[in-house]
Write a structure and sequence with these properties.
elongated, mainly alpha
Length: 92
């Protein structure tokens, strides 16, 4: 396998993962590491549900990272295609 082919595959896969991650987090409401706590008693319509961010520096870092992963994957995808284009142009 040549470098260009490896970069093409990596670019496509990272682009697909970015789209899937974004679709799951936006459309389906899946947000990893976002615990939900219940205040009071969960006894029907009078229960109060509060969504909270993780506490502590590590929890906030993970929370921020889960938000940044699609952007990172999209950047990797674009970088792979640009580097691949440069390699193919250099080989001509």
């Amino acid at each position: 396998m040549t470098k260009a082919k490896i970069l093409k595959i990596a670019g496509i896969l990272s682009g697909i993962f970015a789209v899937v991650w974004t679709a799951l987090s936006v459309k389906a409401g899946i947000r990893p590491f976002r615990p939900i706590r219940v205040i009071g008693q969960a006894d029907g319509p009078t229960a109060i549900y509060v969504a909270m961010r993780p506490k502590g520096k590590a929890g906030q870092a993970i929370f921020g990272l889960t938000r940044a992963i699609p952007l990172i994957l999209a950047a990797v995808s674009v970088a792979c295609f640009l580097i691949r284009k440069k390699i193919l142009k250099k080989g001509e």
